[in-house]
Design brief:
CATH superfamily: Nucleic acid-binding proteins
Number of domains: 1
Number of strands: 6
CATH topology: OB fold (Dihydrolipoamide Acetyltransferase, E2P)
Strand order of the largest sheet: 1-3-4-6-5
CATH class: Mainly Beta
CATH architecture: Beta Barrel
Order of helices and strands: EEEEHEEH
Oligomer: single chain
Largest sheet: 5 strands, mixed, barrel
Shape: globular
Strand content: over 45%
């Protein structure tokens, strides 16, 4: 099941990186988004990349700055470890409001009569 949240990008956490058992490099960028909802409005997402997708982590911070309005598409996953359960919000698409607005033709949405 896919979910979406729209809100303000609050902050980036430190990038984590390592290698898989097969010696493939991976990176994980966590970031916090706050929505306009009254309750339960703070979300911490993870963007995980490895192999030829490593640039996705750099592109996240390159095109989305703290304070920007973003729409995050994500999946929810839960893992069990030693009898405890851990839930993650795994982002697979982050759209900046500037990117969405720039796709509209010039003048679209203007309320001016001239």
């Amino acid at each position: 099941m896919n979910f979406e949240v729209t809100g303000k990008l609050e902050k980036y956490l430190d990038v984590q990186e390592g290698k898989t058992k097969s010696d493939e490099v991976w990176k994980k960028q966590s970031f916090v988004v706050k929505s306009d909802e009254s309750f339960n409005n703070l979300y911490c997402f993870d963007l995980f990349a490895k192999g030829d997708k490593l640039s996705n982590v750099e592109n996240l911070t390159k095109y989305n700055k703290v304070g920007d309005s973003v729409k995050v598409s994500f999946n929810v996953s839960t893992n069990e470890y030693n009898g405890k359960y851990y839930t993650s919000l795994n982002a697979w698409r982050v759209e900046n409001s500037k990117q969405v607005d720039s796709s509209q033709p010039s003048g679209a949405g203007d309320d001016l009569p001239f």
